[in-house]
Each structure stands twice: as structure tokens, then as C-alpha cells.
Amino acid sequence: MNLGEQKYPHIFSPGKIGKMEVKNRIKYASTETNFNLRDGFVTDVEVAYMEAQAKSGAGIVTTQGAYTDPAGEGKGYVGMMGIWDDKYIPGLKRIADVIRKHGAKSMCQLMHCGRVGGVELDYTVGPSVVKQAIPRFREPVEMSKEKIQLTIQEHINGARRIVEAGFDSIEISGIVGYLISNFNSKYTNRRTDEYGGSVENRARFMREIIEGIRKEVGSDIPIVIRLCGEELLDDRGGNTPEECLQIIKIAEKSGIDALSVTIGWQESAVSVITRDIPMGNWLFIAERMKNNLKIPVCMAYRLFVPELPEKAIADGKLDFWEMCRPMIADPNLPRKIIEDRQEDIIPCMACNLCLARLFRDQPITCLVRPTVGYEGNPDWQITPAPKKKRVYVIGGGPAGMQCAVVAAQKGHDVSLFEKSDRLGGQLATASKGYFGDEEFSRLINYFSTQLKKNNVQVTLNRQMTEKDFADPLTAPDTVVLASGSYLSKSDIPGANRDNVFFAHDVIEGKVKPGKKVLVAGGRGLGIAVAQFLLGSGNSYEITMVEAQKKLGRDVNPSYIWRYVKKLKEGNVTVYKASKILEINDNGVVVENPESGKVTIAVDTVILSEPVHSRNELAEHLEYAVGELYTIGDAAKPRRAHNATMEGYRTGLKI
Asked: How much is the pTM?
């Protein structure tokens, strides 16, 4: 028995769903990728991605949801798998085969996205016509009884194809605002026939799908269903937790073999999977299910570290630990736990870049794992370099650390120089924030460990200059400038006054603002410093001035609504589409389209922009070294995922 199996005996104990025996309690949960063709056919990219998950050591590996209808009404993502015709079986079989090849049990998910579907249509479908809360989605058309029966049969036909493709088990998706949840919820189901009204009637659509699939595939194939334990739609008249439990009990009685319990809808005005939600926050819902059901309960949602599911399984609150984002970040996560190498796990930052990409109709990518979607591409794999080089990486932020690790793994002699007394760059600053941002320290710790394990020589408090490269005999073969970016005061008249601070200095505690604060800039950094002040416990009076019509244009959509809500809760005054004209003795002069010029009395001004690349060394090194790269913010100020991607790709080039 491996050390990890000894530490987490319950996670690595055998489990069972229906008649299917599973080697451990880890389940890779269904995750859309947008890797497939628009006509629903499985691609080599998807197969390679799924094989990486199958190699992980997980007991169960679940496919993404497959849409069940030829019109694409159930298709919620442009690269979603299809299952509405037998022509898709060969592609599905490829996935089932690679999962089986690596010793995991395979599960294929059926998914009709309902009122959040029809991604390539000008309408959606649902049980009733209920106005959409999210602008991305189109108004639903009410389904007729004939349409309902057809949709039920399409699910049954899809289940048959799952079995014919060789999968061990079937999963039905009924979560987050997809079609089954649309019928189950009184928020979106206003029908007065036998498919609406009472809990039993609202659950009829789900029940008939389950019973039809069971009749089609027999008793040997396990059926799992994903359902909401809580919808978090109280403000819209959604189901109560008690009604959710009633519906889940109906599913159990109808013949499912296990429940994957989830929380919230896409329309829920409550954070569910973002960093501000503590890890393990939702385990009480799994416990409620365990206390009321006889079937196994699976759960994901902010269970990123093994200690939480291990205890939950040991305490009888959970049966299977599901993971989506943590295994996007590191598909080798289960195996690293088994081998007692948790320090080598690439930690998910719950940044939700993967989700943002899906909603922009793009393939998923990942802040912490640049190789997502390139698992089968040899050009993206780390292989030994043909010639060993001396490599200097200047800057210890995410771009520099990522590049240094990859270059070292290729066999180069790598040195990293950081001018400050710590690694992490802006990640280190961000980790000092509130509302879960301390989790960024997990990524810094990961990179620090990998730098050490790969023998990268790290020198802190070292400002590199052109003099360090003056002697060609001692100059390195390759230099990577990952020196980041900086804020300046040059763009605003009066910004050189003593009461004008930089956002980074405020977050790091180097300066203390006065009571009345104006934050210049409403992009990510400006919002971050405002939230830092709100979370500090001091009663700041905060004004924010942003030049654009919207705040946080560089912030992930799954976060910005939450951040705006926090700003409102903190009584932050926001001027949009506004310009700071000057800072003077009376305060800050702001020009606003509605109110014209106003002077805002403040004690402190905090600048979060403009941001400039710090790359002055580049012109001095152009002819001093044989190979020079400029990456991350040093090339152009952007977001962290751009930094890690460029760091990885540059490391491969060296």
C-alpha cells in the first residue's frame, strides 16, 4: 500500500454503484470542454484529454454531457458531444476504450441544456416561458406534450447508445438550469398539466426519463443522476431545500443507483464555486442526502484537497469525491495523492477561466496548466533539450517561475533572479487579499517547490542590470525577461502628491490610506484594492472612478457580478465613463457625462492604473546574449493566465 493510500484509506477504499465495483472513491466529474466538432463528433483532442483523466488513478471517469436531440435545442456549448444518432457511437467508443484501458470505470453523461441550450439557435426550450436572468441566453419556447414525450425518448435512445459504445455506466444531468432542473423547479415550471404544479408532477419528466432508461438498459448498467440539493433561487421563487430533497427521493424511487448532488443554478445570485466560498462549505448538503437516501452520494464543489472528502467519507457524509476543475488543473491529482506527493499537485485557483472560455464559445484553457487541450500534441510536451544551456530568468512572478521550471525540466542550467525578497510577483500581492484570495499562495508554494525540485538556482533581492551581462565569457546563453509591470503617476496632473498611493502598496500594507479614499481605475486591480479595504474591517468611505461604462472589463464573468455586489454592499460610490482631470488641495476633479465636473474631497487617492511593462533591460541585452525572450507583463500587461502560458511556451522553446 502506498503512503497516500495509508493517509487517506477511505478515499482509496473500493466503492460500488449499483452492480459496478469501483477501485476507489474518486470520480472525475463531467466537464464540458468545447474540444469537439460543431456537429457533435468526438475529436482526437477530446479523446487525448479524456485519456489524461483516465490515467489519473481515479476510480470513475465521466464524459462531458452529450446533447440528445438533432435540432440542437439541448446543445449548450458549441463543442459539445452529440448522442442523438448512431453515427456518434464510434467516437463515443473511443472514449470508453481509453478509460477502460487505464483501469477506470467509464461513465457517459446525457445532457439537455433546456433554457440555457440552443447555443446555435435563436430560441431555447423549457417547460414554460420564463424570462431569462442572464442576457447570453435566449427566451424559451414552451414545450408541448408531444415535444416532452419526444425528448424523453431521445434520452432513452441516448442511453442505448452509451451502452453500445461500451461505457460501464450512465449519468443523467439535471442541474444548474438544464432541462430536467427546469421541469423540477417551480421557478421555471409554471405548467398546469400533469408536468407542472405539485412536486410530483414537476418531477414527472425526470421520473419518466429514469424509468425509460432503466427499462431500455436493464438492471446491470448503473444509472447516476446529477441533481441540485439546493437551487439557491429563493429570490426567484425556486425550490426550497425540502422540495429539492423530495425530488431526489423521487429519483431514487424511480431506479437511480447513485446521486451526484450539486448546488445552485447559473442564475443563482449566490456564490457557489468561487474563491470566496470556503473549501468544504457545501458538505452539509451531501450529509443531508446521506441521512435521507439509501443510495451512494457523490459531490464536487470546493472539495479541492483530500483531507475534506477523506473525513466526510469516514464520517458517513459522502461516498464519492467528485472533481472537475481540480483535475482540469492537474489530471494526475489522484495519482500524486496515492504517491504522497501532494506538494507536486498543480493547485486549481478557482479562477473559472475554464468556464469563461466555455461561455465565450471557446475551448477551455487553464491558468495553472497551459497544456489543457494539448495532451495529445507532442509539440506541447516537455522533452530533453538537444543542447544544455545556461538560462537566466529575470523575474519571479508566474511567467518567470513557469518558464524556469519548464526549462529546467528540459535539462538546462537555470537561474532565476528576483529583485524583491519573495517569489510570486503580483500573485504574492493578490494572496494578501480577502474573500478567498489567500488561495493564490497555494500556487506560489507549488512553483517554489518545483523550482527547488528541478534545481533552479533562485536568488532573491537581486536587481539585474546590463552590467551583469557585460562580460561575454560569463553571460548566459539565454535570458528570459519576466520582469513584470509597474504603475505610474505620470498620467494624472497632481498625482505626485504625498496622499497618492499605488494599489499594490496598499494591499501589501506598505502604506495606510486615510478614511476617505478614491480608487482610480475600475478594472481588476482597482476592484481588488477596494475589496481589500472593505475586508480590512476599517470603515473606509470609498469612491471608484472608471473610464469605461462597465467595471471589471478584464475580470472573469463568474466573479465580476460578485465583486460588484460586494462593492454595493460596502456602499462604494462608483463613477463610470468618467475621467480624472486632476488631483489638487480640494480633492479629485472628476468629469462625468451626467454630472459634469465634480470635485470629490478625499484623504487618499489609490492608483490602480496605468500599468506599464518593465522591460528596459531588453534593449541592452539584444546583442549581449544569444537568445532573448520577453514574456508576461514585461511584454504586455495582461492577466495571470497569459503569463503562465507564455512562460510554459517559452520554456519549451529554449
From this structure: 0.96
